[in-house]
Design a protein that fits this description.
single chain, alpha+beta, 3-stranded mixed β-sheet, 5 helices, 5 strands, 40% helix
Length: 132
């Protein structure tokens, strides 16, 4: 029975409908003046079950207490108790367009993910003005 829970695969649509209902009942906390919202969740691996959460904040800024509460609620709802659950936090934050970034800020954005790195690289390209 434990092996079956260990290798359980949960459909993304079921996860997201449950997550939206759960977040209405237990709203996410505020951190640094903005609500730490979980926008989307999907399961990427089994053995152990690994879930990717897309949020509007980074891993270090997302409250670990809310993650622990989410993990425990998932164990109860989907009957996967006794199994470690891993969460990966992905950010949906993007740098402001047409903003000059120094090296420190560029590195910060690159660490957030591949899409953010691509946007930062496009921001810092030297563009020739178009002829009139």
């Amino acid at each position: 029975a434990l092996y079956k829970r260990w290798s359980a695969r949960l459909p993304t649509s079921r996860l997201n409908t449950w997550l939206q209902a759960w977040m209405i009942r237990w709203p996410p906390p505020w951190q640094n003046g903005q609500k730490c919202n979980v926008k989307y969740v999907t399961q990427t691996r089994t053995r152990p079950p690994t879930f990717v959460l897309w949020t509007n904040s980074t891993y270090g800024e997302f409250p670990w207490t809310y993650l622990r509460q989410l993990r425990n609620a998932m164990r109860e709802e989907f009957r996967i108790s006794g199994v470690p659950i891993h969460f990966l936090i992905r950010s949906t934050m993007m740098p402001k367009p047409r903003k000059k970034l120094d090296k420190k800020d560029m590195l910060k954005w690159k660490r957030l993910g591949p899409k953010q790195e691509k946007v930062v690289m496009n921001l810092n390209k030297k563009r020739m003005p178009r002829p009139l």
